[in-house]
């Protein structure tokens, strides 16, 4: 020792007071002398209640508690590994590895063995400032098995940087190497176990589960972790979670606990969740499963945490096969040759057992019943294979490999040096070796990334009671090779455990309660749909040109509605238009034929052709109202007809003005009349009016649009109305206003000349036409604002044709009639007499 031991204030811990474990005799299973000792902590007995002995100053007597069959099995694995290392001398040639194994009885007896391991040969544990050069009794500790004890032990061992390798404490806390620098383990951490469980549930679509936990750290930590994991994914919900009562050491329940257990079983019987995850040490489950059998619970999928996944005692409760399917998460199986025989090998009859009367020779390094009970379970243990056993085995080998490296061993020789635990720890972190086909090394968190397996309990396969049905790879965080699960259900079908059945396509989910897994299925309403790719909680609205029925998964194209040729109104309007066209054509011919006659001249002369031309065109173009609208058709509807109309009205106005002027004012303002004639006043006026109208129409079009619009028919969702931009009714009013204005002007002139000869007076016609045009426009607008669709188009075309017909028949009709049937009135003489009559009346 480099540094002198401080005598003051060093305190000597007198372990004898605590009655430390004794060096048992050489052939005890619990100790083996050697050059370097390993400490081993195993649970051969268990007191599920935890420390129950603190009222007496005595180390608890483990053998008074329940026996834990697997604990002895694991302890044998450590012994097996040490013996194998000592037998095959290539790893530590010339050295003998020894051990001290203590039963910690789950939680009750974990401090005292640690102090024993930390003390020196003479049972003294010095209080020092610096333990760099301190050599405790053991060089490393294997175990203990559960996380709660491991934490206690690790808190001591970490102070000394004494390497500790646990084989089944899975708690994630131990990944924190700031807190537990000397703790390593040969199993994947709890998060991997939980992930494997969750992936199993996801694989089979179980999203409605029950969680039962033991009333200790193991149950609480793991259920918390599972809850957190499920909250991340949101696809699995916990129907309820219950804490199982912890039985008394003699496996009895108090009346309160019994009532509590009954409540849990009642809930279990009534719930729709068929998957039950149980996080609990196995000893607490015997009473529970007894009750499960008594309650005749069936059809359940039990998911076992690693604590009881391969428990032979529960497995021997063969009645359990009727309650459903048992699946468990545990470490991978690695066959270890010779272990099955070693497990039940009796120590040779040596000297008699050590004298137990001395004050040192305390308990907890003994287990009289262990070997016999293990023998009785040997068949199951042998056929279930080595799983956790291999974790113990590899932990011992990891220490041996580290020793090998620390002592600079060759094939034949090792330097027998003092081993300081902290130096050994450094070597253990670096080990990397192959053991029975598996690569053993510690990752950043001090875990060996061993594969996990999902196993099933099979009572029908006595040679393989826990066959693997899936594998989980920690590095990939994925469950693979799920196969050969035999479901305890009709026809071997996978049980379902869902809060609500999945909604069909065409339905959406409506949440019920707080769980995302519980919902109602609501049919999508007409006009909405849901297919595989859309959100499950909403029905998507159909795109505008389509529609859907209730509960549809897609939308269909709606029927387009527009005016069609075969419809009665179309034929009627077409007949009207044909009538208009033919009469206009006839008028044109008649006027052409009688062009020089006074009747034609009084009607406007060449200007008549200016009116008749657009009229003809307008009639000829009425087809644009029939058929699906296009840009061109809408342009026509919105602009062409109104322009034609304006040309006609302005021609008539110009003509009225001219006549009124000739008769009334030419005498007073001869020069202005000359001006009017010289510059083709009527044409200029018509051109001006047309230009203004054009400007208005173009303005309208810029404001709206000429492309057709498609809207759904509010009365029939299967129909889409195709029409020109509905805003064009605003334009229509504008147009009509201008036409009205023109008409009013024309009417004024006509009215002023009301006493003119009747063949010059158009007041009646203009009034008629104006009134008709205006009322029809107003009613059309009103109609448009109330109705929609094809009816509007019909009204529109009807009004347009009627307006033109009014001009053709109202204006030109009487004139043609006179020309054809009263040719005597169509003579210059007759006209002159009329004018003379007028002049005379006037004078
Ligand atoms: C170690 O060697 C002894 C004697 O050869 C043998 O009986 C024993 O089975 C061996 N142990 C192991 C674990 O190989
Ligand atoms: C379970 O079944 C047995 C026989 O089938 C019956 O006697 C017993 O009452 C049942 N137990 C419960 C809790 O239903
Ligand atoms: C055991 O102890 C008792 C008394 O303490 C003593 O009489 C006896 O000889 C001892 N036996 C052995 C084998 O040491
Ligand atoms: C274990 O079994 C053997 C024989 O099989 C028997 O002699 C012995 O008394 C048993 N031990 C215990 C502690 O039951
Ligand atoms: C298994 O259970 C049966 C009856 O339930 C019992 O007789 C047998 O002893 C048990 N096996 C072991 C190894 O305990
Ligand atoms: C361990 O050794 C193997 C080969 O012997 C190597 O492939 C592997 O990367 C090593 N692992 C670590 C963590 O060093
Ligand atoms: C599944 O089980 C059958 C018989 O039980 C066996 O033949 C087959 O190899 C198994 N499949 C796998 C992948 O283990
Ligand atoms: C079970 O499967 C068989 C054939 O595979 C089938 O005829 C039978 O209807 C199934 N029974 C049930 C309850 O599903
Ligand atoms: C589901 O609907 C969306 C949106 O309409 C579409 O893009 C997608 O292709 C549809 N998926 C299937 C599978 O029909």
Automatic annotation (TrEMBL):
Q: Could you tell me the keywords of this UniProt record?
A: Cell membrane, G-protein coupled receptor, Glycoprotein, Membrane, Receptor, Sensory transduction, Signal, Taste, Transducer, Transmembrane, Transmembrane helix
Annotated membrane topology: Multi-pass membrane protein
Q: Which domain of life is it from?
A: Eukaryota
Stretches that traverse the bilayer? 571-595, 607-626, 638-663, 683-702, 732-753, 765-786, 792-812
G-protein coupled receptors family 3 profile domain location:
569-835
**What Gene Ontology biological process does one annotation of this record name?**
positive regulation of cytokinesis
Signal peptide positions (record):
1-24
Give the record's GO CC terms: plasma membrane; sweet taste receptor complex
Protein location: Cell membrane
> Is DNA-binding among this UniProt entry's keywords?
no
MF-aspect GO terms: G protein-coupled receptor activity; sweet taste receptor activity
Q: Which Pfam families match?
A: 7tm_3, ANF_receptor, NCD3G
PANTHER family per UniProt: CALCIUM-SENSING RECEPTOR-RELATED, TASTE RECEPTOR TYPE 1 MEMBER 2
| Function in brief | Putative taste receptor. TAS1R2/TAS1R3 recognizes diverse natural and synthetic sweeteners.
What is said about its interaction partners and assembly?
A: Forms heterodimers with TAS1R3.
Concerning its family, UniProt says: Belongs to the G-protein coupled receptor 3 family. TAS1R subfamily.
- Name it: Taste receptor type 1 member 2
Native organism is: Ictidomys tridecemlineatus
């Amino acid at each position: 020792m480099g540094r002198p031991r401080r005598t003051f204030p060093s305190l000597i811990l007198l372990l004898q007071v605590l009655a430390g474990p004794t060096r048992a005799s050489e052939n005890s299973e619990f100790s083996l002398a050697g050059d370097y000792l390993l400490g081993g902590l195993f649970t051969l007995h268990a007191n599920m209640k935890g420390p129950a002995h603190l009222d007496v100053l005595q180390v608890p007597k483990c053998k008074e508690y329940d026996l834990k069959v697997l604990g002895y099995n694991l302890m044998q694995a450590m012994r097996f590994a040490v013996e194998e290392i000592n037998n095959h001398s290539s790893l530590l040639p010339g050295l003998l590895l020894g051990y001290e194994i203590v039963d910690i009885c789950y939680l009750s007896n974990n401090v005292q063995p640690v102090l024993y391991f930390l003390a020196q040969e003479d049972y003294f544990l010095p209080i020092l400032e610096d333990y760099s050069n301190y050599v405790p009794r053991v060089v490393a500790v294997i175990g203990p098995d559960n996380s709660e004890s491991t934490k206690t032990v690790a808190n001591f061992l970490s102070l000394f940087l004494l390497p500790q390798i646990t084989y089944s404490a899975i708690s994630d806390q131990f990944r924190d190497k700031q807190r537990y620098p000397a703790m390593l383990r040969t199993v994947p951490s709890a998060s991997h176990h939980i992930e494997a469980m969750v992936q199993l549930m996801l694989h089979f679509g179980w999203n409605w589960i029950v969680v039962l936990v033991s009333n200790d750290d193991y149950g609480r930590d793991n259920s918390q972790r599972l809850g957190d994991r499920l909250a991340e994914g949101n696809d699995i919900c916990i129907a309820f979670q219950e804490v199982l009562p912890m039985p008394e050491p003699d496996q009895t329940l108090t009346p309160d606990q019994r009532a509590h257990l009954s409540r849990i079983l009642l809930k279990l019987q009534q719930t729709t969740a068929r998957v039950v995850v149980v996080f609990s040490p196995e000893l607490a489950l015997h009473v529970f499963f007894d009750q499960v059998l008594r309650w005749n619970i069936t059809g359940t999928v039990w998911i076992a945490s690693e604590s009881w996944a391969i428990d032979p005692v529960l497995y021997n409760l063969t009645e359990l096969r009727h309650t459903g399917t048992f699946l468990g998460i545990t470490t991978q199986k690695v066959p270890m040759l010779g272990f099955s025989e070693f497990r039940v090998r009796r120590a040779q009859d040596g000297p008699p057992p050590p004298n137990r009367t001395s004050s040192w020779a305390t308990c907890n390094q003994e287990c009289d019943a262990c070997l016999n009970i293990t023998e009785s379970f040997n068949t199951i243990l042998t056929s279930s294979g080595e799983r956790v056993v291999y974790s113990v085995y590899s932990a011992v080998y990891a220490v041996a490999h580290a020793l090998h490296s620390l002592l600079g061993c060759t094939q034949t020789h090792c330097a027998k040096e003092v081993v300081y635990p902290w130096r050994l720890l450094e070597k253990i972190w670096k080990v990397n070796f192959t053991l029975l086909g598996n690569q053993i090394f510690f990752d950043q968190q001090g875990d060996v990334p061993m594969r996990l397996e999902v196993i099933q309990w099979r009572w029908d396969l006595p040679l393989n009671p826990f066959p693997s049905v899936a594998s989980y790879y920690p590095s990939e965080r994925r469950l693979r090779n799920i196969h050969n699960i035999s479901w305890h259900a009709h026809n071997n079908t996978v049980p379902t455990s869902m809060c609500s059945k999945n909604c069909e396509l065409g339905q959406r989910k409506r949440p019920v309660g707080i769980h995302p897994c519980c919902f109602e299925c609501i049919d999508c309403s007409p006009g909405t749909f849901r297919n595989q790719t859309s959100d499950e909680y909403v029905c998507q609205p159909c795109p505008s040109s389509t529609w859907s029925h209730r509960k549809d998964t897609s939308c269909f194209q709606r029927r387009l509605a527009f005016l069609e040729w075969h419809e009665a109104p179309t034929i009627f309007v077409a007949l009207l238009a044909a009538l208009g066209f033919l009469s206009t054509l006839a008028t044109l011919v008649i006027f052409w034929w009688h062009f020089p006659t006074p009747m034609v001249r009084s009607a406007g002369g060449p200007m008549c052709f200016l009116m008749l031309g657009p009229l003809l065109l307008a009639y000829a173009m009425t087809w644009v109202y029939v058929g699906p609208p296009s840009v061109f058709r809408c342009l026509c509807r919105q602009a062409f007809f109104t322009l034609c109309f304006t040309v006609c009205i302005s021609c008539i106005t110009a003509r009225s003005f001219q006549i009124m002027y000739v008769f009334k004012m030419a005498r007073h303002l001869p020069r202005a009349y000359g001006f009017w004639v010289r510059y083709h006043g009527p044409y200029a006026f018509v051109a001006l009016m047309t230009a203004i109208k054009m400007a208005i129409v173009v303005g309208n079009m810029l404001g709206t649009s000429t492309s057709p619009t498609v809207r759904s028919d509010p009365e029939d969702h299967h129909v889409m109305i195709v029409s020109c931009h509905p805003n064009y009714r605003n334009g229509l009013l504008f147009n009509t206003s201008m036409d009205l204005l023109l008409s009013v002007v024309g009417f004024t002139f006509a009215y002023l000349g009301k006493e003119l000869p009747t063949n010059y007076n158009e007041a009646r016609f203009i009034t008629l036409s104006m009134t008709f045009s205006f009322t029809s426009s107003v009613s059309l607008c009103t109609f448009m604002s109330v109705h929609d669709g094809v009816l509007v188009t019909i009204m529109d075309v009807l009004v347009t044709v009627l307006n033109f017909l009014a001009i053709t028949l109202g204006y030109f009709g009487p004139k043609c009639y006179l020309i054809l049937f009263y040719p005597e009135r169509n003579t210059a003489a007759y006209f002159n007499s009329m004018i003379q009559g007028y002049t005379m009346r006037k004078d």
